[in-house]
Amino acid sequence: MGQQQSKDELLYQQVNYGNVEGIKSLHREGAGLEWIDKEGKTPLIVACMNPGLYNVAKTLIELGANVDAYRPGRHAGTPLHHAAKRGLEQTVKLLLSHRANALIMNDDCQTPLDVARIKGFSNVVRAIESHICLFSGWLRELYGPGFLELLAPQLLSRKVWVVVLPCGSRNLRKPFRLELAIYSAVQDAQPRTIVALWKANMEEPNFNQPDSAVIISDISNIPKRWRRKRGIMPSQLIKSRLRGARRKYIVF
């Protein structure tokens, strides 16, 4: 047993050296891929924290490393959390292509997407969103009283990039809720507004009309504790004075 453990640790050390052939050789000899160091990191987590270890991460995954291995504590998270935190777009895409779960929350109630948004890595944000979203694209947002929209629709509308996403949950057996992330520009990492669709009242669009629209009303703010954890500032949310007002989104 002791000999087996030392092989596992030796394989972990080869990850730090970037020695792909050494990793393969030790694995053929029976070394495991899930050895955990005193900080809670597995070999794959280590590889996903370093931009120079992409090939090592790829090798470990191909050998069967757990893409959802979880590191608890102060720097908690899965390999995807750690890659997103450092803006490693290619490593993020590698993990997602091998079915890494992008909805797992860390100890701070943050998904990898939340982490990438907070750090400002828009390329990673787009990579994760495109992988898990139900819809993404440009919409035209109409705002203000309905009679003014009819009189001056161009003055009371703006083009926005929106993404419909499932929300993370600690209990992966629970049905996921959906949220609408609204960005002023596709290059932005932080959404201007996040709408909790499970709290919104949406009217079904009339597809017989030339411009089919979805009308969202009675939008509730995300709880303060979630805003803090996910790095969402109050200014990014719909102001309370707009509660009960309607926001209309038209496919652009």
TrEMBL record:
<feature type="repeat" description="ANK">
    <location>
        <begin position="75"/>
        <end position="107"/>
    </location>
</feature>
<keyword id="KW-0040">ANK repeat</keyword>
<dbReference type="Pfam" id="PF12796">
    <property type="entry name" value="Ank_2"/>
</dbReference>
<feature type="repeat" description="ANK">
    <location>
        <begin position="39"/>
        <end position="72"/>
    </location>
</feature>
<dbReference type="InterPro" id="IPR036770">
    <property type="entry name" value="Ankyrin_rpt-contain_sf"/>
</dbReference>
<dbReference type="InterPro" id="IPR051637">
    <property type="entry name" value="Ank_repeat_dom-contain_49"/>
</dbReference>
<keyword id="KW-0677">Repeat</keyword>
<dbReference type="InterPro" id="IPR002110">
    <property type="entry name" value="Ankyrin_rpt"/>
</dbReference>
<protein>
    <recommendedName>
        <fullName>E3 ubiquitin-protein ligase XBAT35</fullName>
    </recommendedName>
</protein>
